[in-house]
Amino acid sequence: ALRQGSDLEKAFATAALVYNNYADSESKLSKAETKSLLQSQFWHFMQGQENKPKYQEIISSLDEESENKINFEDFMILLVSLTLMSDLLQEIKNVKTTK
């Protein structure tokens, strides 16, 4: 459906597809599933963040035993939060692409 979509549209569509592949029948993820997804699909952004208090807070919240599941909206907020604190973001900012 997004063959003609912009790069940004394709990026968000990919995030939605990955989320849906991991999500349960209610379109939600357990905290453990969320952590697993992030570790396998988002590790470049998470790499080197272990000493940052906000990162520790986010990951610790995923380790808590809870019946609360994560919906797509919360998942996207989590991705954006991890991206904003990532050292990789600065590297990306330093790279300019031309079209």
TrEMBL record:
<dbReference type="GO" id="GO:0005509">
    <property type="term" value="F:calcium ion binding"/>
</dbReference>
<protein>
    <submittedName>
        <fullName>SNTAN protein</fullName>
    </submittedName>
</protein>
<dbReference type="InterPro" id="IPR002048">
    <property type="entry name" value="EF_hand_dom"/>
</dbReference>
<dbReference type="InterPro" id="IPR034325">
    <property type="entry name" value="S-100_dom"/>
</dbReference>
<dbReference type="InterPro" id="IPR013787">
    <property type="entry name" value="S100_Ca-bd_sub"/>
</dbReference>
<dbReference type="InterPro" id="IPR011992">
    <property type="entry name" value="EF-hand-dom_pair"/>
</dbReference>
<feature type="domain" description="EF-hand">
    <location>
        <begin position="50"/>
        <end position="85"/>
    </location>
</feature>
<dbReference type="GO" id="GO:0048306">
    <property type="term" value="F:calcium-dependent protein binding"/>
</dbReference>
<dbReference type="GO" id="GO:0046914">
    <property type="term" value="F:transition metal ion binding"/>
</dbReference>
<dbReference type="Pfam" id="PF01023">
    <property type="entry name" value="S_100"/>
</dbReference>
